[in-house]
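Input chain follows. Return structure tokens only.
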Amino acid sequence: MALQRFASKLRSARKLWLAGIGSAFAAGLVIVGIVDAPRVRAQSAQTAATPLPSFEVASVKPNNAGGRGRFFSFPDPGRLTATNVTTKMLIEFAYGIKDFQLAGGPPWINSQNYDISAKLEDAEAKELQKLPVDQRGGRIRLMMQSLLADRFKLTLTRETKELPIYALVVAKGGPKLTPTTHTPPDPDGPKPSAPPQNGPQLMLSRGKINAVAAPISGLADILALMPDLGDRLVVDKTGIQGKYDFTLEFTQENVTPKGPQSLESAPPPDPSAPSIFTALQDQLGLRLESTKGPVDTIVIDHIEQPSEN
């Protein structure tokens, strides 16, 4: 989906979610637009006979500043920058997985931070802009896979396991959802002088999920980041199409999401608020059903620290 910057503070319609990256920062996790990006299973169809798309040039440098701010952004359609990100975050983004779906690798993949600046060929950037938004995110993920293989010498094994999951289904009484009021800009109209401030987003913070123009599949994806769900994938089984605006309020026994992130600066959740399970049913007319299902996982076979350039 539309790749836009994501960080502790999101100020631009170009902000990037890493749906499935499993990371949230100081003010929570914002998922903007790419919550339906293809995952591991779809990308596994890429064969050796069909080379992965790649960036024209890419700079990878260690970031030893020690700051907490971490983000990915597209300052223009042909360029990707990543600031203060770990290799683990890059892998989770590239393959559309959560923290609990990745195994193996040395400790530095979760401790050494990097700054990355990558540029697409002009022709590739133009072609990317022509793709439907759900395909753009998938293609950028493939480019990140190519960068990881080239610069980090990453090799991995994909496995599908039958594991406990949650199915997100419609509760008795039906859904309680409000179709979005967000109107996307006319692609053939004049370009705005500044990025819109209230574009599509899906944001997880302590005790709250805020959504603007979000599909229910995106809600399922962000729910899987919550430690309350015990490292389970959440699969959208509602059959609900379209995009919705909503705010979901709940309390959490564990307020720190899984993965390399922190919500220390976020306000504490309301202790009188319902659990996420109750909130889903009462506020959105949805429920989580415990079951089993196929879960795509990745095991790192080999990885190297990249040489600086």
